């Protein structure tokens, strides 16, 4: 709070000064009046607590700015995008092997012998209207000196016929041994046995320009046979 005694003293001095001026018949100039007013206001404000506090705050030196250079923000590393996989629908090529290496049955030798394009199979099976058969013949030989048991029924080996660019899957052969696709038989020592693969195709494919059969052990290897 402002000291009241000081304020009264200042006011009294001003009054006396003004009266003295009146006695002497002397008027103050505007500049002198401004000086007196500024001096009086300064004395009054010196005793005001709020004004002191404002002075103290202003007199506190401002916090020095950091002289350290600003740290540069590290640029994000360019993470290479994973290469896009080829969008081709083609299956990866498999290793080309011989028939014996594909079947991998010790003591068994397999050979392609011939094929037949017909509308009737083993006298009991006749093609439907607009349908045709391709009968692909194989010879399976036991090269050992004792009976050889062969079971390919659970191997899942695929047989695909390609006729002039069109592909067809194998059908059951209806033979006792199940044919090559499901061969399950017992071959005497040194003997051979016939096994076939049967394909059903449209009748228009009965006279092919080119025909091949692919024998495939899925995900491992395959053999391509040109029919002739």
Shape: elongated
Secondary-structure element sequence? HHHEHEEEEEEEEEEE
Runs in which pLDDT lies below 50 for 5 or more consecutive residues are 78-87
Mean pLDDT: 77
* End-to-end Cα distance: 122 Å
Helix content: 10-25%
Number of helices: 4
Largest β-sheet summary? 8 strands, mixed
Structural class: alpha+beta
Q: Tell me the β content.
A: 25-35%
The main sheet orders its strands as 1-12-11-7-8-10-5-2
What's the total number of strands?
12
Determine the oligomeric state from the structure.
single chain
Written overview of the protein:
This protein is α+β, with helices and mostly antiparallel strands and 228 residues long. The chain has 4 helices and 12 strands. It is 23% helix and 32% strand. It has an 8-stranded mixed sheet. The protein has a two-stranded antiparallel ribbon with strand order 3-4. It has a two-stranded antiparallel ribbon with strand order 6-9. The longest helix is centred in the N-terminal third of the chain and has 20 residues, at 4-23. The N and C termini lie far apart (122 Å). Residues 78-87 have low confidence and may be disordered.
List the helices and strands and how they pair.
Elements (H helix, E strand, L loop, with lengths): L3 H20 L6 H17 L2 H11 L35 E2 L2 H5 L4 E11 L1 E2 L3 E2 L4 E12 L5 E4 L6 E6 L2 E6 L12 E4 L4 E11 L8 E7 L3 E6 L2
Parallel strand pairs: 1-12
Antiparallel strand pairs: 2-5, 3-4, 5-10, 6-9, 7-8, 7-11, 8-10, 11-12
């Amino acid at each position: 709070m402002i000291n009241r005694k000081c304020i009264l003293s200042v006011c009294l001095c001003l009054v006396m000064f003004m009266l003295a001026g009146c006695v002497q018949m002397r008027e103050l100039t505007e500049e002198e009046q401004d000086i007196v007013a500024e001096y009086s206001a300064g004395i009054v404000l010196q005793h005001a607590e709020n004004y002191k506090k404002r002075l103290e705050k202003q007199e506190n030196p401002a916090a020095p700015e950091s002289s350290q250079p600003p740290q540069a923000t590290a640029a994000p590393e360019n993470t290479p995008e994973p290469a896009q996989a080829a969008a081709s629908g083609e299956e990866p090529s498999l290793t080309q092997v011989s028939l014996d290496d594909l079947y991998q049955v010790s003591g068994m030798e397999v050979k392609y012998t011939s094929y037949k394009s017909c509308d009737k199979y083993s006298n009991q099976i006749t093609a439907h209207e607009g349908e045709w058969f391709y009968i692909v013949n194989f010879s399976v030989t036991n090269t050992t000196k004792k009976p050889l048991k062969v079971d390919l029924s659970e191997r899942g080996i695929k047989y695909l016929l390609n006729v002039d660019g069109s592909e067809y899957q194998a059908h059951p052969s209806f033979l006792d041994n199940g044919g090559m696709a499901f061969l399950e038989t017992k071959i005497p020592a040194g003997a051979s046995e016939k096994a076939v693969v049967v394909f059903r195709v449209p009748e228009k494919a009965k006279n092919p320009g080119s025909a091949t059969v692919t024998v495939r052990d899925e995900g491992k290897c395959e053999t391509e046979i040109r029919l002739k």
